[in-house]
Design a protein that fits this description.
about 600 residues, mainly alpha, MetI-like fold, 2 domains, 28 helices
Amino acid sequence: MSRTDATLDSRYVTSLGQEPPRVTRVRRLIPETGLQAAIWVIVAVCVLTPVLPLVYASVQSKPIYATGRSFTFSAYHQLFADPLFWDAAKNTAEFAAITTVCSVLLGAGFAVLCSRTDIVGRSVYSGLLVVPILLPPLGIILGWNALYGDGGYAHDFITSTLHIPFDLTSVVGMAVLGTAVGVPLTFLISRATLAGMDSSLEDAARSVGASPWRVIARVTVPMLRPALLNSGLLVFTVSIESLGIPLLLGGAQGHDFVASYLYNNWGDAITPDPPIVSAGATILLLCAVALLLLRRRLLGDEARFVSIGGRAGTTNTLRLGAVGRWAFSALVGLYLMATTFAPILALATSSVVSELTPLVPPWQLLTFDHWRAIGQGAFAVSIRNTIEIAIVGSILTTVVVALATMVAHRSKFRARASLPLLLIFPRAIPGIIIGIGFFWAFLLVNPPGNAIRNSIWGIMVALSVRAMTLAYFVISSAASTISASLDDAARASGGSWWTTVTRIVFPILRPALLVSFILVFISILNDFDPALFLVTPDHQIMGTTMLDASRQGSVGPVAALAMVQVALTVAAIFLAGRVFTTKMSGRRYA
């Protein structure tokens, strides 16, 4: 080992208390800038690969795999001339608007109650309100349908007893379900904003006699404007790409959204028309990009809402009184029971009964046939494929995103400023677009396109790219807390960028890397949109198998498969929590 490496090792031992691994000379054969450029190229290829072939396919007269193609905009003309497309666009806009408004109001309200008031159980509610994000989306939909759908346990109570006209298969009914999924996003963003806000302005308002509700309305909510705008645009973007809800609930009533319209015109059409589907996906892509740019522009002047000065902000709770704190606590608990826990209970019950109906007590219909069914055949294969894809994909995604984050925020690479946008982009566009784009990319780049497309690894690539944004948010946030003085010290000692990152920064980031791995694992485990155009009969995953079986009426096995997803998700979260707590309490970074 050289004197430079020995000096760097001594600094590492001083800061972390353990001997780092020895440095091999192989890494010095690759120029630092070349290594950073290679990482940038990997990210750019992964992110842009599904986009460019999609746009190309939309302006071709025939599918990419056909001969005799020519450049044309006829697919767009046919798309805009189809009244079914405009009906789907109208339904999508209505669904997204209702979902966004309700999610922002409820999510921000819950964030204020849990962060700024003294309601009973606010710390517990802060964790429970984000549960829907971690649960399988198809499982949530099926649970809601079993509970609130036509013939469900709660449907007659709502319509006959409460006299509320509610139809889960209508656009408004589906928006109620969409709100249950969108509230956690608004809650997380609003709660994070409130945690960083100094309560001195609220204290000043109370000191002049303002009531708690007046303080919230006149001081707290105005300070939340950037968070409300941010979360609103995010929920709207997520809503326009919704696929599972219209496929499982709206299809029978003809309430298609744009995403389900595209899927039906490809997968269920007698004569699929790929150019029209590609044109519709491109329109959806442009809408998502426009919303992303709008979000960045409108949030550019957030500084005027900042209420923290040089010192860390302090937080004082608003006292609602004995009646108020219990009443609002009961309302939050009732919301959680109605939107999250009751549907999951209905889903679990569906997996162990021959038929879930309010006309017969469930204990009289108990059966384990559904669980035996998922232990064999296509169900068992999909479980194995999903676990393999989730493990391998989460490892590769975490490694690539961790290196890309270091290039973006801890290097002097010239193109580093473009990496954050590239890493955020996959989550800002609909998953169905990623799937269609990779389908065309594998056809264009062959070999090895066909080999990848006809295996589970093509699905893994699409799902991993979709999950890159989650890994970036976790790793970049944790990396921002590590002082740049460690990098400067390494540089002053002659250490390279690679040595600094792998031997100093990454060991400190181990807890964050673990959290990133778990989040990506959960995302790949539960996601299915990007895989719809890539799966084959021999290479299915749990999400696509559940979707196909549920559309054929196999409710019981699908419920059992969804409960397997829930169990795997809970196990991953529990394991991450135990390991993370152990590492942080023991301060073991190496």
